[in-house]
Task: structure prediction
Amino acid sequence: MLFVANPFYGIRGSPIPFSTTLIASVCPGGALVSRQNRRRAKPLEGLRKELTGIPGFDEITRGGLPAGRPSLVCGSAGAGKTLFAMEFLVRGATLYNEPGVFISFEETDEELTKNVASLGFDLNQLAADRKLLLDYVFIERSEIEETGEYDLEGLFLRLGHAIDSIGAKRIVLDTLEALFSALPNEAIIRAELRRLFRWLKEKGVTAVITCERGERTITRYGLEEYVADCVILLDHRVENQISTRRMRIIKYRGTSHGTNEYPFLIDENGFSVLPITSLGLTHGASTEFVSSGIPRLDNMLSGKGFYRGSSILVSGTAGTGKSTIGAHFVEAACKRGERALFFAFEESQEQIIRNMSSVGIDLESFVKKDLLRFQNARPSTFGLEVHLALIYKVITEYEPAVVVVDPITNFLAVGDEVQTKAMLTRLIDLLKLKQITAIFTSLTSAGSEQEDSEVGVSSLMDTWLLVKNIEANGERNRGLYILKARGIAHSNQVREFVLTDHGIELIDAYVGAEGVLMGSARSSQVARETAAQVERRLATEMKERELRRKQQLYEAQLIALKGQYETERDGILRELEEAKQREQVIASQRLEIARLRHADPDGAKVEENGARKARKGTVR
Amino acid sequence: MKGTPTKQRKRTTNGNSLSVDGDDGGRWNLRLYVAGQTPRSLTAFKNLKDICEEYLKGKYHIEVIDLMENPTLARGDQILAIPTLVRKLPQPIRKIIGDLSNTERVLVGLDIQPR
Result:
């Protein structure tokens, strides 16, 4: 099969990302489709696989267990071996119409039926439909006396009959190792087991054989020597009093498979494996924006908000309003009609709803409309892996558009920083892959380096808001910065962050000669500023009035002087006119005298010239 | 299958199993499970016959069940190993596996005191 060669080829055989297949087959319908497609033409025949129908398991094995071959499921007591095996049969019968046989060496049919009834598996119904056959094999050492050579043909016949009677495609042997404690001759058992596995392969049934985990070997009796195609290890570990179930595929011949330890859950729906690993940086990038729910914050982020599918870290000390930012974001999403999921690790649902209503955020109505869901759990309830697994499960089921995780720092109570970071990386990858916009709040302890204690995840985040308590003049005020916002032109200014009865308000902090001021200092400074401004305005007005007065004064003086000048000018002009007239009179008299004396005209001319010269001098 | 010896006998007359009766059948009710006429099955039957003749003469009943013919019967007596001898009577039920070649162990298994 194609996917054997290339891990990124989904079980449909088309080059779709691994994760897409993951979503498809988590729901039973999707898995059916995958299976039908799988049956269609596959020219390159590799190892054929059989879908188990166990959510998640088929993804990490890229198609299920090897078809027609025995697989080994080992683990210590209480690891979930029997349940895994039973679910393999039940899912096979219900999802893929493949009848199965359960050979139990430990529990009777009635016990098994009761045990799995709580998971919603009705074995009696399946048995009545001839989809499932339970067979309890009882062997008691004390009843058995060994008297020579024997073989286990009786078991073979019994299995053969069980398989043939319902046409089984799947068989479970739980726990085959009971043979070792019941029959004294180990050499015979080993020889017979070898024969059994060969026989099962010939029968073409997909078998699951459960066995106990050994001290130093994978299984107590070394069954892995015989069943070597696929070995699955189930583990149940308790660290710091918190238990985590994990699964690992130790070996799977002829195929690629996930090699990590995967957490798995056993809950009311049965077994689910959570194939959450870092899926790589292959997720798409949306250019769509989603509002933060706080208009001024959107303004700070180039007016639109966050990119859809981005991860936002809100960090700050206690009581800075981180959860409120988350609540605003959730409210905005719900108002747009999108589904939101709130993971709260500190407060109960009721408490959050009450507290948020005190700042005017009504979350309850959205909860009623099933637009908002809360997942509340103390971090110490489960291990990190289980938390991640649960988050994954809820997200897959509910398919929200936005998610709030409040706060991520509480995970440090259950894991160290490295583990927490690894877990959050996987969570972020998962969210990005599903294009879910997520707000993570992070509590920084007061006094510590603000930009240091973010569980080391700040580099994974696309946007980082820092809410800071700024203490001055005997009061605390909140300041909000955007430390980074990838791909968004954002404001680098600190805003004062005020919680009002209608939600968060961002106010421009006072930035001036006095430094950055907030709270009452800001308002008193603003008042001082206003007073000073009024004073300055009054002074200006006074100066202006003075100027106007001066202008009027000088203008009046100017008019007076002009009048004086004109008067003096007129007098002088008059005098000049009179002098001129006098001169003319004198000249005309002289001509008259000359005429009377009959003087020489030249002489008269000379006289005239002389008179002209004299006049000129007078004028000057 | 406990408490239904009549039915079993009926089946034996059908030819599926081989029944060997001693004189006082019922005191020792033995059932030998085999799978086909293998040499080991034949050895086991022969050994059983010899032991019974020697120690239980006249008070035993042997029923041979071939699981090849009747695989469903394996479930009733919880048969895994072949051959298996089941002592149905006297109670309690005891199982002896193997070809019965170790007479001493067979006697211990059947709880027969050697003479």
